[in-house]
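ok here's the first one, seq then struct tokens
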Amino acid sequence: MSWREAVQTVLERDPAAKSYMEALLFSPGLHAILIHKISHKQYLKGHIRLARAINYLGRFLTGADIHPGATIGKGFFIDHAVGVVIGETAVIGENVSLFQGVTLGGVSTSKGKRHPTIGNNVTIGAGAIVLGNITVGDNVKIGAGSVVVKDVPPNSTVVGVPGKVIKREGAVVKTDLRHDELPDPLRDAIMDLTNQISELDHRIAMLEERLKKEK
């Protein structure tokens, strides 16, 4: 992904970016991505210390810590870079969007693959944590604050701690930044219990009325 494509991605997905120059100069997520592009190139050449030095500078400037070894596809977007952590063996597909505080981390001290693989057209909400050598399929949405430690099938939504998969029907999901409008299993369960209690109250009232008439 060229720097021009990266700027265009910001303009498409960040409504706060009013112009090309504003997106270029004042988007820390964009800067984090461009700095990673430089550090990743050095990493692949075997210049590990230089790559890590560039990464360290990027973390200082943007608040995002993207390891030089991470592989990132086209159309990558970070909204508010602060607190974003992406591990060395993470693989990110195309048209992926991350919000602030997202972690793509490892749970092993193994030198091999230990970070997540993220598919295409994935949106990960603020503060979400995706851990381990797992795969998140294409067209997935992960809700803010979720903790994901298992594979996620394509075309689905994950919410909660630990993350619970809610399958979505229909065609391919387009890139959608509305990560606040997600199913809430806990809320749904509470609403179901509330409805059942209301139904029981209604039945009890009917029984009491019937008993009064019989007396």
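and now the second one, same deal
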Amino acid sequence: MEITALLVDDEPPARDELRYLLDAYPEIKIIDEAFSGQEAIEKVDEKKPDVVFLDIKLWDMDGFEVARNILQKEKSPLIIFATAYDEFAVKAFEVNAVDYILKPFSASRIEKTVNRLIEIFRNRKEKDEILKVAEYLRSLEKPCCKKLSFWKNNRIHLIYPEEICYCEAEEKGSKVKTIYGEFYSAYTLTELEEKINSPNFFRAHKSYLVNLEKVKEIIPWFGGTYLLSIQGYEKDEVPVSRRQAKELKRIFDI
């Protein structure tokens, strides 16, 4: 991990001291220095550092004014105030500074600051990776459409699952009976069941898939099984297998 830094202070000895302490950390790369607020703003635009170590009392501008200007940018760096004045700590965090270190700098205090920066950028990198993976997965997804396509008279018809009354397995594909009439699907009944993926559809029999919302009557049959009368297809009686009869009774509380 490499975190690029800009040092801003109008006193060269203070910049030298901070540079010396930060040089002990290979994760921190100091890419430039600035001795004034205006120069700091220009170098942020030019160098685009990850973090700015910023003094509050500069000869040309107030450090808070510099920070507010920098933080308005689209991809703004983090701000760490490095100053001799402890009375501005609360104000510093009001402008979203991530840390506030006092002069004279100590090695132990700089260590805490660097560790905080490493943690921030590690978390940011992990989030960026997650977002990249999520974006890639979204790019693989097909546009979402609830309608299913079926054939009739050499035309493809688009039907919502809730418009299906029931489906019947054929030797090749499936017969799909809807509120608009009968259609053909090249999918097997199992494939159709997976595509519809709705709790309202009941596999009454290995050869039949029924929309429970379209069941008009349940007719007791021999051996503890049933026949289903389907709305719009009352003459078609859909059988319920012995294995599925128990589930049907549970669904309709029979």
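notes on #2: The CA atoms of residues 18 and 105 lie 7 Å apart. Helices lie at 12-22, 37-47, 63-71, 89-94, 107-140, 189-196, 242-252.
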